[in-house]
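Open question from group meeting: does this chain pack into something compact, or does most of it stay loose? Before anyone orders reagents, we agreed to write out a predicted structure and look at it together. Recording both the input and the output here so the notebook holds the full record.
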Amino acid sequence: MNSRERVLAALSHREADRVPIDLSGHRSSGISALLYPKLRSCLGLPPGPVRVYDPIQQLAVVDEDVLDLLGVDTIELGRGFALRAEDWSDWVLPDGTPCQMPVWSRPEREPGRWVLRSRTGRVMAHLPDGALFFEQTYFPFAETFEPEALPEAMEECAWCAAASPPGPLVAGTDGHLLLREGALRLRSATDRAILGLFGGNLLEMGQYLFSNEKFLYLLAADPRLVHAFLDRLLERHLKDLEDYLRAVGDIIDIIVFGDDLGMQTGPQISPRMYREFFKPRQALLWRRVKERTGLRVMLHCCGGVRPLLPDLIEAGLDAINPVQISARGMDPGELKREFGRELVFWGGGCETQHWLPDIPAEDVRRHVTDLLRIWQPGGGYVFQVVHNILPSVPAENVAAVFGTVRSFRL
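Structure tokens returned:
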């Protein structure tokens, strides 16, 4: 099988010739730009320029030679864009390593920190000296919610405005044509499965715009306001989704939505609250995808979300990542037995809070092998570690993980 066939087999709940592998196919399966040069050295590859693909999370563009060597079967749609030198600007990582950032998201220096500004000049995120990631500093609806101001508010929100490629390269009236052109270029250049990151966040968008604590409070205290906000947001998402599917729905292989519904200890919200506020709206978005295309729908959703899985499946979900196996209720064997015929598990392949950064490489290999023996039978599984690979992880452990997966056979 080639890579695309391998991933599509998994999405159809069939065993492929080997376990499909994802690294940097979406923005929660990447690798820290701080660690990336060390991984290249560990793999015996020559040093090269480090490009920071995701400004907020500080994730690296993973080069073709690394993807090939590790047997990676996925690629993100954004890799078809920002291919010119002028799309990038010089910067420096927190450890002093030279790098490049997308020219439209170049940080500015202030005393004691780096900042990212919106188009209006507002500081919307900062990287304090000694920190490793940017964090949001401005929440547009923290004081007052104005429904008609939603588009402007999203332009002032770091998670919306500090865009990864393609970013503003596909802005304007011809944006969907430019998006399609880049997608076709990428499709012709790779047999990897292409993931299109649409987003469509609902709970998270409320947290981005109101702040986490205020939006969770409003869900309980002012449901009428929350419904008004989500209705306006859904209207925006549906319009954007129509444009997105028209541009690339016949080119990409998987469409990726996002909403972190879980925490380490379980869901952020009750199943009842999910059914009232989010399930009908997600179902409408996902149904629209399936009415327009043959695409499979994947949701990025961290945390202990097992109590929500039946509703997510009923709403039309096909696959979930990153399968946070260290969270409450997320035991791999139980998840596979209970939901493995209906849901594709995309992740859960190596626990990243304790195992990947702290355990010797040989023990990591056994850990990964044990998990693959649970996940792989019957298909319905794509390997990724649980979320992004952080700077504290030994490069040798990363190499051990992917070498183990590539050689694994049931």
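Observations to bring back to the group:
The first strand starts at residue 52 and ends at 54.
The longest helix spans residues 223-248.
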